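ok so I'm stuck.
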Amino acid sequence: MKCDNGDFNMIIKRTDLMVEQIENEYVEYDPLAEDVKILNSTAYRILCLCDGILTEKQIIDLIIQEFCPDKEMENNVLLDVRECIEELLLLGLVENNE
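replied:
not stuck anymore, here's the structure
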């Protein structure tokens, strides 16, 4: 399933974030907020795809290809990726590259 719900903005990860992998999680230090956030491996993968070149739609399609072998689960993955991107935006780890 491709996400064909219109055009999406390109999303870009902030360049000042520092990351450290600890086992299967990623500790993200935000120097502006002087805060630490912990991401699971899927959220970190989504964060890494936020390069300012890929659109939200392209990121969703890539994650579906990588993590969703079951066609019946694609809609759930699509919703989860959208939710993750929204959370990353709210946390200030990524921004719309308009």
